[in-house]
Amino acid sequence: MYMAEPESKRARLSVDAVDCDGRAIEDIELLPNISEQNAILTESDAGIEGYLRPECPGFKCILKNRWEDFIVQELANGELATLTTLDPIAPPASPEENIDESNTGNNPILETYKVELEELLSGKRDCVKIPAPESKVVRTAIHKALRSLSSKLSSTTVKEEIDSPSYILVSGTSQPSGVRCPKRANHRLSKGRRYCRFVLYKEGKDTISAIRLLSSYLRLNPGYFAYAGTKDKRAITTQFVTVKDVDSKRLAALNSRLQGLRVGNFSYVPTPLFLGDLDGNRFTIVLRSIYSPDCIITDAIDSWRSNGFVNYYGLQRFGHSAKSKSFEIGKHLLRGEWTHAIDLILIPTFADLPVVRQTKEEFLTSGDAAACAAKIPSTVEKYLLQGIAKHGKTLNALQALPRNLRQLYVHSYQSLIWNRIASRRVNQSHAGHAQPGDLYIQNAADSLPQIDAVDEALCLELNSNTSSNATTPVPSIVTAENYQDIPLTDVVLPLPGFAVSYPQNQCGRWYEELMKEDGICQQDLRHRVKDFALPGSYRALVVKPTDVNFRIEEYLDPNVPLVKSDLQRLVEVQNNTDSSNIPEDSSLESTAHPYRALILEFTLPKSSYATIAIRELTKSVVERR
């Protein structure tokens, strides 16, 4: 006999009762003035109302009991982002280091000092002194030519005494004592390998926060970093990142200062990452407190692996609270109802920090935007209140918000329509196969670039690389002659926009119907405000997990990890301890009632949500926050 974890040890929240910013439920309970009942965003609110195989039984379990129960590894070009070493590597050899006449820029002065400069680069000299010409133009040309010779050379014009002639001091990695250095060190890497690529390991942090922290330590603009997509906060994740003109030694030196972050597995590459430059993500997930028989679990996994799941957008895309739904804000923005949008953004919710909530409540009663803005730190609400103080509740006030946030609202509405259409589609009779008039793209999940609009908007905040050379294929139309030959995994649904095609069947008419209910027409998607215009895109209706592995384990302590992270394995290797298995609980033999957990490994294509995949598998998952 097996037992479920005691109620006192966990918070039983349904999967649709999630605080989407990852705050603990205890934090929510500190806000007694906000009614929690009816304040939590539900699956129904987000249009998630169907299963691909509702007839297949699921099983009860707890998801994300600990963030160590949710491990995500990025997959790119067949390579899994795995942290196996923290050691820096030597910068790439540069063809610039061997100086010859062809790379002296035809500068006769540098040709004269060619031998001395080569000795400087090889470490045989501390510096080279070149008489400085009187002409500033000529001196500038020499400095530029030196920089073109090698990234390891720096130069400055020196005049030691008033009556003494000036000279150009050329130095390498070290400088003689008493000699003035240039104000800024040159960190440029070899022209052929300008970017350091590394694996970013993080625990309990989102990608944006992690990048900001790294850029702060390195004193760089966050735009120097590039990555393929954002990863969950309440999870252990590894992903690839590139940074321009930063030596791996500088990055590796940060590891001793980082909490919940590590960087490693360095290499040098000629180009940065772009948003969407990944194949997908590999998940290792622990589902705890299961008590269904093994046969039920195995049958559910077999069906899930064979048929897949409805590729819904997850709840985290739609805001923190049912009182201030991000898609409702987006709806008002599309309709040009600036006052309504602003009022929704400023509604106090359970997800607010106490100081922010109190300020919102004060603004509702006083209406003094300037005074309220002065009371809170730099938050979204502060920017908006400052905008209201200057412009009133107008578009100009909304434009005080970061551009990425303004776009997130309308993308959320777009995602809601997609979810609602998908629910209607899978709840139809004969929904398990393609239908005449559907749109399809062969191998849709892999063929679509799937640059997630939310990721793209977040990247805009950091000025990261937001596009690659990927192009969206044009979908074909399922006909009465070929519908039986089209797998459901090839069927795509458009996100509403002015540049997409719609299904030529009842499904296509639903778009117009649902948007009309919201007071929005197709023309509104060509918004006069550029940030709110929606060209649209396509998303696979159904996705199948691949490379599925699972095992069922018994355990006694709910707080003991059942899988190991990359960092745990790395530490064990460094300490020469066995990292092959989690140590077994020796007391298991003495108890008749251990807990049971399903340890599930699988891969999903980019822009698909593991929580949505687990929802289809279990039918009754409880997500703990």
UniProtKB/TrEMBL annotation:
<dbReference type="GO" id="GO:0005634">
    <property type="term" value="C:nucleus"/>
</dbReference>
<dbReference type="InterPro" id="IPR020103">
    <property type="entry name" value="PsdUridine_synth_cat_dom_sf"/>
</dbReference>
<dbReference type="InterPro" id="IPR042214">
    <property type="entry name" value="TruD_catalytic"/>
</dbReference>
<dbReference type="GO" id="GO:0001522">
    <property type="term" value="P:pseudouridine synthesis"/>
</dbReference>
<keyword id="KW-0413">Isomerase</keyword>
<dbReference type="Pfam" id="PF01142">
    <property type="entry name" value="TruD"/>
</dbReference>
<comment type="similarity">
    <text>Belongs to the pseudouridine synthase TruD family.</text>
</comment>
<keyword id="KW-0819">tRNA processing</keyword>
<dbReference type="InterPro" id="IPR020119">
    <property type="entry name" value="PsdUridine_synth_TruD_CS"/>
</dbReference>
<dbReference type="InterPro" id="IPR011760">
    <property type="entry name" value="PsdUridine_synth_TruD_insert"/>
</dbReference>
<dbReference type="GO" id="GO:0003723">
    <property type="term" value="F:RNA binding"/>
</dbReference>
<dbReference type="GO" id="GO:0008033">
    <property type="term" value="P:tRNA processing"/>
</dbReference>
<feature type="domain" description="TRUD">
    <location>
        <begin position="308"/>
        <end position="544"/>
    </location>
</feature>
<protein>
    <submittedName>
        <fullName>Multisubstrate pseudouridine synthase 7</fullName>
    </submittedName>
</protein>
<dbReference type="InterPro" id="IPR001656">
    <property type="entry name" value="PsdUridine_synth_TruD"/>
</dbReference>
<dbReference type="GO" id="GO:0009982">
    <property type="term" value="F:pseudouridine synthase activity"/>
</dbReference>
